[in-house]
Structures
1.
Amino acid sequence: MDLPLVSACFLALALTLYVILDGFDLGVGILLLFQPATASRDHMVDSITPTWDGNETWIIMAGVTLLAAFPVAYSILLPAFYLPITLMLLALGFRGVSFEFRVQSKRHRRKWDVAFAVGSLVAAFMQGLVLGGLMQGVKVQNQHFAGSVLDVVHPLPIISGLALPFGYAVLGGGWLKLKSNLSLQTFANRSIRVSARFFAILFGIACIYAVKIQPSIHSKWASHGIPLACLVGLFVIASGILTTMTEKTRPAVPFLLGLFLFVVGISGIALIAFPDIVPFGVTLWEAASSSTSQTLVLVGAAFVTPMVLTYSAFAYWIFRGKTPEQGWEA
Amino acid sequence: MKLDPSILARIQFAFTVSFHIIFPTMSIGLASFLAVIEALWLKTKKPVYLEIYKFWLSIFAMGFGIGVVTGIVLSFEFGLGFARFAQLAGPAIGPLIALEVLTAFFLEAGFLGIMLFGLHRVGPKLHFFATCMVAIGTVLSASWILSANSWMQTPAGVAIHDGHLTVLSWRHVLVNPSWLYRLPHMLTAAFLTASFMVAGVGAWYLLKGKHQHFARRTLALGTALGTVLIAGQVFIGDILYGTMLKYQPSKMQAAEGFWEKQSQSPAPYYWLIVPDQNNQRNRFQLGIPYLGSIWLTHSLDGRVEGLRNTPRDLQPRMGMVFYAFRIMYGLAMVMFAVGVASLWLRFRGKLFSSRWFLWILVFMTPSGIIATLAGWYVAETGRQPWVIYGILRTVDAISPVPAQALLSTLIAFVCVYAVFITAFLVFAVRIIRRGPGEVPAHAEASGSVKNAFRPYVLDSPERLVNSNITQRS
């Protein structure tokens, strides 16, 4: 069996789950910035409080899978994205502690809400920056990072950094439409409509720009033009529905369309990067650890992941339905 | 001034990991404590246990939150600051941490929501199950991470060919020589930490004459658990000392403060030294005569090995290891004394009324955290100059990241973590001042697991109670 390929699939699964699950948590966080009413902000945070921790755990899963299965890639990518990743971790820290601290402090709740929202926004921006940096390509020499930590300060990473918060806001808006009471429906609809528009435009610009500056992406279009064009088509249709018909759909539709948007985007990126794990220079197989290490991770994952998914789903199910007006404990 | 990236990377890792370990130590201890309390509540149906549960749950939740977000940092910091370490050690410790995430982090995260917010939704039995899952998750997590760290202390089961590490035997990596003793040592430390925290807060209420019922229960439980645990810890610590003496003699040589290959006979036990690493001697030393021979060699005139037995370039810094060890060991002895005193006072029926003892307990509230931190400093600074003992030096492990970037992120970490700890302390003190909330007398211990599986969703305790009443009638 091609172990590195299986490990890469598990890594892709963990990353995708992180992006869509913490994506809507971060999106709800970003949207706090645009919600002036304290009671509504409480309601928005309540909708994600019981399950955010599990969602965030997928990023650790992805990071550690990279360390275990592709140590060479891990030790190239983390120094390469030293600044955005460190800032993302600090921002996620602010977001995470604000869940607890905003409840403890009546007087300063507004300040913790700002920390929550800015933390979510900065984390999303930094993740976009890393994505753009990957598509721009990472300088590698002798299996070590050979570029500068400031390589991410370039147009492509910055455009991608600006796009991702809007993408997360689409997911966050979709989640709110699904979980919140009547008073927040208009807010949710507007968030989805506006964010979807900006996300589609910025993501589109980033894609075109990436083809222009990175020859490897250009040649991928030449060799895999049809599947890539199909993905672009699906992306355009989904974002078109989101920007025009959000009000008229059933409550779950915008959220599902948002998820679909992300799955399409991730598939496109995976198609472009494959078979590199550090684009564009180090392949999966060059970066892989020995088969004993791959085997332990994969056997563990094969047994435990189904259980994890089951009880995570159970936790969602316990807190199903509309978020109660007075919070979960009342 | 020329900045050294390897020093900065080390300071950053030391700072972030020291800050982090405070919170898991608390949550490992408190999670198990909460599981015990909830079991007592389910068994006795006494409202005071629900009161204790809810009170400590709010502090647990805050600590757990900080533990999670500062922990994520570490799983990336192996690569951010120590890329060469990650590249070499990834194949050995990576899978261990991956299994930690799979079996422990997800378990904790999946059931934490139910533990914090789900009592009314799932009923007490399933809620108790959730508490137990979180507690088991914390213990499993400690087990995996201690295995990874112990492998760095006493590496085994691997082979290295041209800079690439291959695991030959997972059993030897996982059950490496020091893990078997370091895991119980750390778990006991975490349980001790929780015991002294719980007892300290109870003692404070008794001194203030508030929340008597709550305070007596928690003080009695905290001191009882603390006494048993410290007795065990002294025993485990002694075995671990012997193991480390065998596998990492330089660490224990530094911990005792002697330089000469063989100390004088009888050897004193030093409490205060001013080490001079350059000249391989102490500028000043103060100790209790004979005690070194008695404690360390179990004889009246035994000699103790000094740090000069280790070649100079492979020696750890004596000052750090020595004082970290003295703090840990000193606190353990105070804890032992407190444990003995609590037994005596309990026997005399004065456990709740001896004000001097209550004050001592109040001051001992953070003792477990300080001792645990000091213990980790012994382990980590004593392993230097190695990051993987005998295999990779710390200076050879760092990332190709410029010093300026490391310095600016270090400053950012210090500022952000200062906000976190300040907020945590302010809110914890506020929760303690406010005291345990009144719990309704009808305590919902009568609910059933079926609640969770009902088609409709319960959102208030009244509905839960009402639904039970309608069921019964």
Note: The first helix of chain A runs from residue 3 to 31.
2.
Amino acid sequence: MKYYTYFPGCSSSEGGAKAYGWSAQAVSKALDIELVELNDWNCCGSTPSSSVDELGSFCLAARDLALAEKRGLDLVTPCSACYVIFNRTNSYLKQYPQLKAKVDEALAAGDLEYHGTVRVRHLLDVFVNDIGYDDINSEVKRDLGGLKVAPYYGCQVVRPRPGFDHPEFPQSLDKLIASLGGEPVPFPMKSRCCGGSLIISEEALALDLIRKLLDSAVRNGAECLIAVCPLCQTNLDAYQSRVNKKFKTNFNLPILFFTQLMGVAFGLSEEDLGLKTSIVPAERVLAKYL
Amino acid sequence: MEKGTLANTFVEEISAIPGGEGIRLCIQCGTCTASCPNADRMEHTPSQLIAMARAGMRGEVLSSNAMWFCLSCYLCTVRCPRGIKQTDLMHALECLAVREGLIHEKTLTPAMYRSFNHFACILGNLPEFGFMTWFYLLTNPLRALRMIPVALNLFKRGRLSIRARRLTPEGANQLRAILDKAESLGGVT
């Protein structure tokens, strides 16, 4: 059994990506991983906070890191935004002593201190590097039999700093699909942006980016697409009908969390994986495995 | 003069912000602009913005819409041959613009970011439904109506919670104390 401190983030806990949280837990259990949720965590602030109040945003993230440090385990999150924010906070606190002094002073007001020792990981990294493709493969109960899957990484799981995969041409998700018996389709847009939170404030712009991603996936023969971030999944799934309306397209591409696809291959139940929460129904392509 | 304590020029001001110091290293190669998915929507491209900042065009830079179109996709950052953290530089310019009240009126992104930050700080959590409703009502109630089909789809599939996750009272107080202290310390510089 491997133990981690778990940071679900707002979307995957009680937000729009509950199914990501459920399937992350279910798949982890199957792989002998125990994800213990960080007690009383707060929102990491994501990109919006760091764009309007820098010091406040570092403090939001630092409280979580300080709480996690007490447990002494790696901090794992399924959310690419949380992942980038915590890693940014860690590296900035190391690099800028003046900033660290201010954050320390703020934390002290809450009787907390942070020494910069928490290693922040994305759940994908934990699965492919701590567990590995072979062990994942040996857990497969229903081989995906060549299901054509577009591996969508998005931005923040691979950028900005060198992490567990290449910043522009990542491979970990491709190999993960293969280890489940699926076929990763060539997907040139695999690490391009889905529009992020600008779907809310600049919808036309984001819909255009989403259209390009869907187009690239479908043209390469994908039967479904898997995402590693709650916001990427929501943009591609919930806004797919808006893209169709705006661009007079006909996309009908199921968008899954990567943990849901793993769960299907592991033979877990539809309920445990929250497959019914998809806006574009996934049953059509997954029926033969369920 | 001690670096970072007294900003005589706009470049010094930016350089004093953590992550902003790279602005001095730019060679105007344009790699960031060529990499940016949104450069064509910006009044000034990322590389132009840097050139303008170095020319001391403080007002023009801070009232530009450019940084508000940054998606934080970090493609420019990983490609910059000078190692400049452009995305973070954009965030720094956004924070400066907010502090100065120089927010571009044609983009709703600053209002959206501020609504988000407001919820994150007050509740310690981001209730998506409440945040989006608040934002749409604040900026364009008509858009709230147009969003009903998307919202209904999410709701039908159990993806729209009205109730927000709450911290324990101790946790909420602790977060409040930390953020109040941070506010009293001024900004990052």
Note: The two ends of chain A are 27 Å apart (CA to CA).
3.
Amino acid sequence: MKPCNVYELIKGGLFGQRFRMRVGGIFGHSGLTIMSDLGSVNDQSNARLGLLLFVFYLLIYAAFMGLNAFYPQVMRSTPFGGVNLAVLYGFGLIIGAVLLALIYMVICKSEPEPRSEGK
Amino acid sequence: MDLSLTIFCMFVGAVLGLSFYLGSKAKSAKGYYAAHGEIHWFVNGIAFAGDYLSAASFLGICGMIALFGYDGFLYSIGYLAGWVVALFVVAEPLKRMGRFTFADALDSRFNSKGIKLAAAISTLVVSIFYLIPQMVGAGQLIKPLLHLEHYQGVLIVGIVVTMIVTTAGMVSTTWVQFIKGSLLVVFCAGLVVLILQRGLSTRSDGVGKSRAFKVVPASEILRLTQTTEVPKEGVWAKKPYMRLKNIQTGEITVWREDHAALTETQVVLIKDGTKFINGKRFDPNGKLDDQPKLYSVGSIWKLPGGVKETGPLGPIEYFNTLQNSTVVQWSGDKFKDDDGTDVTVYFQKLTKGADLLVPGNSGTFKGLQQDQLIPKINFISLMLALFCGTASLPHILIRYYTVKDQAAVRKSTVVGISSIGFFYVLTFYLGLGAMTSGTLDVSDTSGNMAAPLLAQSFGPIPFAIISAIAFTTVLGTVSGLIMAASGAVAHDLMTNFLKMDLNDHGKVRAGKIAAVFVGIIAMALGIVFEEVNVSFLVGWAFSIAASANLPSLIMLLFWKGTTKQGITTAIIVGMVSSLGWILLSADTFEKVYKIKNHAGFTPFSQPALITIPLGFIVLIVVSLLTQRTGTAAVATLNRETAAASH
């Protein structure tokens, strides 16, 4: 292997052409390349949808962690039915994950031919 | 044989018999490791639940909620959230890339011995760390049910599970997990209906072995109890307790000073090897029913509106009512008397329901209600580990290879998430039900027996059923873990890494021998870690799995520049750093090494916040440094694939 310059590798490799995960692509139709590149067009489309739902859930989960860690008093408030926000948010995260999973299953495209008997 | 034991044996026998029957046809390696890839997606989905809803979920979370309220529910949230990563990011590509194990997928484009070795070791380490809490839970379940010692319970589970795995591998494992997953969710739902029907009440006598404990104004204590005060001397002078001697019987009771009142306690003394429970001598050779016992605890002190009982409550109303109630919790204080007697005083604590329904009551999360930054970082780190850990657990990942295609993977994961999510909603009611039903064992500091004891408050049959389900819970998860570990040894290490020339039959035999060894290790560790809360232990496994496996999985899927050296190094660095961090943390010093007030050698106890990013950084840096070879390999593979597809 040739001696390499780390700076050049980072510049050219991590942020250049070879780094193919573009978060912008998650929301549009360009850019996202799933590196299990044996996947079909349907696989790519499913992966894009999956990442979109993942990022959405991640933000809600991160907000939950942030509120509990830095604004614990907010979790004591009782916005609905006399039940506090900690309980409602916790149930919301569980039920929300189930709903997103169902949405994903409904929208996802299945591959036309069975092609996953392993290698 | 009593009724509980009969029902228990019938349940376990039926589950085992069915799984052996259904699994009897798996003879080939593909059958042994991946159930021929022919499991129906719905069965696989419920088996996901059976695999994932371990003793930690059922016993550990319910116990933690019963002891500390909302803190246990944080684990429920984190465990379920992790499935979002598994479904949306990892599941389908992993199915496309792998064959039997997680190492197959990681190595799919490189054919690297380093990756095979690192992934196999990581699978073994994570599986063994996950096995510890399952075995601990098994031992604790057996104790009250069969009146056996902890180690005997661990040995029974270890032997039965090893038999399941060696009989027919993944097929029988899948069926055990399917049956157990279904039973667990259905019966827990039934138990929650009973909890809501019963509602909440301030009555704490007459349920199980509990009774009402007294709280008496300090000024009237001697008159009301017909006692005299024992002078406060030695170690007692520094403690907030008053010892009272009954004028007629001479019996000594201990009361805790709580502002202007004195609250009744329960006391265990061990003097010269003899145990005294609440003043009465315990005879280890006597009949169990005649022995003195600690009273069960857990009750409501005051309900909103001053009522004595609420009657049936709705699911929302239950929280609303509890939030405005006052709950009697119990704590233990262990110390040595001046004459060397070991003293444990269990005392009551009145806690507002509103305080129990927010995080911050347990030792793990207590810093959340304070201003210091470190406990908050610790909390975020644990929640991150739970979020990232699920998609990196080898015994979950192998289940993607038991169905036929990606669509089946997707559908079974959705079934899994739905059933697991429903179960985690139930855990909150089960934990709070146990907290207030007067059935908690005051000496059980881990809380692991809360759920079966809650069932006992509804009668011996629910207790037997829930105990049997909990036992099959352990069987299901442990068999999955032993499968994953035996696959790592036989398939990844022996066949792929060491290139041992094994025929199909030899591969299956190697897997079975590996399963026996892993089973023995699991039994030994289950005995050693008896007194640690199982949820806490599972947090370790999640941290190690997330740190060792997730960076490689994600970067392999999303970064073209990933090289085999990058993956190998990231797995090893992630595993060693997270494991080292855990072993040197303050929590481990306190809960495992039993060294109190040791600050540990890490700034906070949960490693994920540091070690997961570290895994990504190491992978990126090493991949960049070894880029030429890595890219060339990918390019070659792409060319070959393109050629093959035309």
Note: Chain B has two domains: 3-200+394-531, 215-369.
4.
Amino acid sequence: MSKPDPVAALEIGTSRTVMAVGEPLAPGRVKVLAVEEIPSRGVRKSQIVDIAQAGISVASVLQKAEDKTGYTIHQANLAVSGPHVRAKMYTAQWQLNGPTVTDEDVAGVYNQSLDAGIDSAERMLLEASELGYGLDDIDDITQPKGMTGRILRLRTLFVHGSAQRVADARKAADYRAKLAITDAYFSASRAACAVLSPEARRDGAIAIDLGGGSTGYTVWSDGRLVHANVLGVGGDHVTNDVSLALGLTRAQAEQAKKEAHAVVGGQGGSPRIDVPSSTPGFDTASISRRALETVVNARLHEIFAIIRTELDRENLLHRVHGGIVLTGGVSAQPEIARLASSVFGLPARVGTLIPGIEGLEGVEHPASYATVAGLLLMSQVEPDSGSLIKRIFGGFFGK
Amino acid sequence: MNKSLLLLGVGGAGTTMVRGVTRAFGTPMRVHVTDTDAASGAEGDIPFTLLGGSRLAGRGSGGQSAEARAAFEDDPSALDAVFDGLRTCVVLTALGGGTGGGATGGILKRLHASGISTMLFATLPFSFEGADRERAARSEAATLAREADVSVFLPLDDLVSGKDNMAEALRQAHDMVSSGVTLLWRLIEKPGYLRLDPERLHAAITGAGRARFAAASATGDDRVGTVLAALAESPLLARTKDSAPVRTILAGVLAGDDLRLSEVAAVASGLSAAFGPEAKLEIGTVNDELTFSGRLAVAVMLFEESPALAAQPAARAAAARSPLAAHDRFGKTDKTIWEGEDLDIPTYLRRNLTLDR
């Protein structure tokens, strides 16, 4: 029996460009053969502002991945994030053709939902999550076929992004690497699927993907994606704040922030931190740990507080019984889970990859690679199952 | 006409003041007025938006700021088309109840959410109008100061004195505000030796906080001395118990072809000496022989420093670089605005946090 073709995932982030190559094992299982990254160029707030620069980053990271695995990679799935990503809840209604629900009725309400999910050529569907059927005055029906009634409803959460932004990412992938993008998915929900077990998604969880340019978050309940959003603030803002507050270069600020506890006065560390200059011949800067942590804490606390406020408004916090899981590069900040827990009043942890993702056991801070790992899982869905259908979480991710 | 800059009048008094500016300015400028009272839009050719038509039927708020607030909130996007393409909006209004006090906050929030910097000029009622109106105005002012990038509150008592006739006093006060704002507009839109263009204004006012504003003009050999003396004595520029030290002095010198560089230098040094030797001075000039022949006018805006920042030299230095420095990093992308706050500006600066160095 021949080995399956490798699958690949690409994330063009604000801080780094990451490529993962994997080997499908079975539905819901993948072996990661390589995960490579290099610092990004030409990206701000998760948006490409220089296609050529971003394209060079893609070519470099692709080369590294190919060298590591020995495979030639022609195509990959793309992770999409940034403040242009939005979620929209829509309930489609369908008048039954007869007294009971038939396959045609189910297909009819489904197609109507898809038609309405993306009603603009400028938007592109990234994900969709079926939240349940309704029939006349009955809600939360899981399988309506054969039931008697008049009006069939389907409630769906659509996550969509700017078609132009996705097109820019495709151009960057093609620019030098000639890498074709198979499909595009919402990075925060892919990261969530890499760190939340089906049980955790059933119990209710908030997954926060703290990226360099933006912070995406998803809420899961009863095994379904019930809310998603992106805040255009991320680790790049933390670096910028540290640089401005303490008079450091960006390179120094990037280095200094790794030393900071997310909670001011956290455990360990000397009161002053020496930050060598990135330019030879210039003095090492000595900065106050407390000042550094005040700046870092202010920004991270604000990010969590904004998300909490948004979820309060959506009346979703009561559906979360499993707590908060953090992913993304910023989740490596010391004591960040403690900060998240204090803001939300819920248990919080930094994500660990689900058992179905193999091959990253020895990697430092695997939560940084949750997005590409989750994308590799998605790559196992057969293309002919339909590019829209494969995003519905009723499949092997759902239950 | 600069299309990135709008003068917006809110309420009856705001409409009156905007009309005064357009009359004095003489050439086309981007203006708009809005009110709950349809009468404000009935005369003149200034574009008008009625607020809360379905709620108040164009009869006005009856001096009730809650009614005006609800009228705006009925359709918060009512003015969105007016704001299209703007970078900076100057808002004129009157506080103490009514449309100005009720709707201006929502309008400023909407502008801020669109990334448009805002400069608010609001009059405060005469003291003889009663304690209730004064309390209402103070409360409204406190709210609006948080919503606007720059807020200038002009007590009517300080604008006019010695008038028995209230209508005449109000007219004179509104005329004074109008002429001050007209000077500001000339400074931005008319070419001079030192130009204060809209981008420079935008950068100067973004997140600047509270400000004081006054203008004076004079003719004759010692016109500079006369103007400086008038400004130094102006109650509008005087420090109060709530005032903070002056961080930036924004000044415009407007004159005809006879403006001498020595006069500009004398105005600059005189303003620095009077209002803040350590304050940063931004000065612009307008040469308009037709309007200012033989006359010299100076418009001054004093930007105050927030007390929390004043206590922190390092934060002050950072604030001097921000928000422009903060936006350098994110300049090619859309601003991240959440509930009126520009999240690209460092959190510690927006929260005025003390850094223990």
Note: The longest strand of chain A covers residues 123-135.
